[in-house]
Recover the amino acids of this structure.
């Protein structure tokens, strides 16, 4: 959980700069990286504290009834979107996960998970949680990746989720995946990675600024006049 944050937390107002990037299109090494990840099993060590967090998650899930459908808000930041998603998915358990104690503190979840009815917020590192969730065969109904850190520098390609070695596991979790970003290239790359791995993403959409923003970053970007992009895909579960 030591990765530096390339995106400032939203503070309100409309003065956010668009993602600065020198590239103008899909990273030219994306396909090579995807192929390499397909050929090699990723065996990086799991993050210890996140393993404990997963055990707490499983305990909560068994109290709620393990068979209930799950909605995952991966990288939930302050947790506001997790609350809003609960209203959107009235029959599911909703789990918000973020590595930032400072952001989660806003919903009262810091070192400890915080539960409120069908909603649970947990501080953890996502790659470890996704690997455990896959092994536990979580019944994922929806998976939201809302404004992930873009890592726009070309050298940081593999920090973008679609070029990260955990991407195959993320897809294997299944469910309906929704990505939102204010950086179009991130979404284009994500769509390409989905296709390369045998998935069938829906056409990328622009998000209109009408209606209540789903997340604080969305609110900030919309107020700053950024274009916002959405990609959805019903995942065909397979892989690791
Ligand atoms: C740009 S913020 C977006 C937050 C929120 N989704 C929103 O739209 O307001 C990205 C979030 O992802 C979290 N994050 C990035 N990498 C992570 C990781 N490996 N594990 C857990 N959280 C991570 C960061 O802590 C941060 O809160």
């Amino acid at each position: 959980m030591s990765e530096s944050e390339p995106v400032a937390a939203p503070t309100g107002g409309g003065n956010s700069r668009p993602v600065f990037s020198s590239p103008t299109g899909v990273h030219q090494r994306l396909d090579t990286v995807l192929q390499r990840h397909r050929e090699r099993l990723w065996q990086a060590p799991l993050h210890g504290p996140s393993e404990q967090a997963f055990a707490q998650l499983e305990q909560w899930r068994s109290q709620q009834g393990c068979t209930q459908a799950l909605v995952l808000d991966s990288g939930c930041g302050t947790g506001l979107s997790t609350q809003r998603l609960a209203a959107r998915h009235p029959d599911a358990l909703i789990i918000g996960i973020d590595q930032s104690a400072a952001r989660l503190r806003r919903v009262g979840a810091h070192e400890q998970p915080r539960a409120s009815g069908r909603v649970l917020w947990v501080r953890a590192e996502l790659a470890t949680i996704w690997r455990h969730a896959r092994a536990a065969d979580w019944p994922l109904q929806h998976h939201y990746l809302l404004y992930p850190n873009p890592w726009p520098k070309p050298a940081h390609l593999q920090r973008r989720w679609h070029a990260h070695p955990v991407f195959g596991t993320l897809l294997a979790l299944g469910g309906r995946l929704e990505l939102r970003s204010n950086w179009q290239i991130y979404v284009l790359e994500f769509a390409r990675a989905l296709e390369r791995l045998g998935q069938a993403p829906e056409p990328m959409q622009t998000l209109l600024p009408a209606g209540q923003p789903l997340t604080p970053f969305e609110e900030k970007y919309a107020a700053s006049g950024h274009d916002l992009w959405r990609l959805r895909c019903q995942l065909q579960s397979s892989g690791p």
Residues 30-35+47-235 form a domain with the Rossmann fold fold (CATH 3.40.50.150). Confidence is low (pLDDT under 50) at residues 1-12.
